Amino acid sequence: MWRAVALTLFPEMFPGPLGESLAGKALKEGVWSLEAVDIRRFAKDRHGTVDDAPFGGGAGMVMKPDVLSAAIEAVAMPRVPKVLLSPRGAPFSQARGRELAQGPGVVLVCGRFEGVDERVIEAQALEEISVGDFVLSGGEIAAMAVMDCCVRLLPGVMGEPASANEESFEDGLLEYPHYTRPASWTGPDGTERRVPEVLVSGHHGKVADWRRLQREEITRRRRPDLWARRQVAKVNDEK
Ligand code: SAH
Predict the structure, then answer these.
(1) Ranges in the chain annotated CATH 3.40.1280.10
(2) Residues of the chain with CATH 1.10.1270.20
(3) CATH fold label, 2-151
(4) Where is S-adenosyl-L-methionine annotated to bind (predicted)?
(5) How many angstroms does the Cα of residue 87 sit away from the middle of ligand 1?
(6) 50-67 pLDDT tens trace
(7) pLDDT per position as a tens digit, 71-105
(8) What ligand 1 atom has the least distance to the C-alpha of 133?
(9) What CATH architecture does domain 168-238 belong to?
(10) What pLDDT, in 10s, does the model give residues 178-195?
């Protein structure tokens, strides 16, 4: 069983959306487990203090190293990566999600306030992960995003294993456009839109070619960064 542990000041936020749909079903079936541990339980005083003012001054509060470290110690498991959700972390990726999903699980430390004391990051060798170049009010939603990405990659969670391979990012390309019935649809703008002819042709080879081309064009146009990285990887492969 793949184990996810969230260290948080708001344990009641979990499983939240992860209790529904694919992830929720897998949780009930015991494919993975989720434990939300309240950091406040590890406070050293009777007021349950978990944060304090920053040395050097400035706005906001900082999560105390002693309390947070004690919480991490209590849940640490051998060979399980310890992650701190942080806007300055390495951008999270499908590739990192796949690696985490292939391991025994993950411990996710959710920051609040201005963040955590730098010394815990060092002492606990936390891997800092960001879910994007924007600021959330806490690490919980970011932790859920990481868990969700990992859980749908666990064996048996997704209906069709094949559907994972052609998805966005798996091979450096974004996904092709999808269509379903009706074959002709008139939207609120009064324009009739038909699905691309090739998709109703029944010609599997042509469908595959069309989808491939779409993926390449969409990636080149929308994500020149991904496209460039892919071209570099290709050149290296050919060497
Ligand atoms: N003062 C920080 C922001 C703190 S936000 C700064 O300027 O960078 C509070 C907490 O939310 C962080 O400690 C982190 O755990 C979480 N968080 C916010 N944005 C995030 C992001 N993009 N990715 C991952 N975690 C994030």
Answers:
(1) 2-151
(2) 168-238
(3) Alpha/beta knot (3.40.1280)
(4) 111, 131-136
(5) 5
(6) 999 999 999 999 999 999
(7) 999 999 999 999 999 999 999 999 999 999 999 99
(8) 22
(9) Orthogonal Bundle (1.10)
(10) 999 999 999 999 999 999
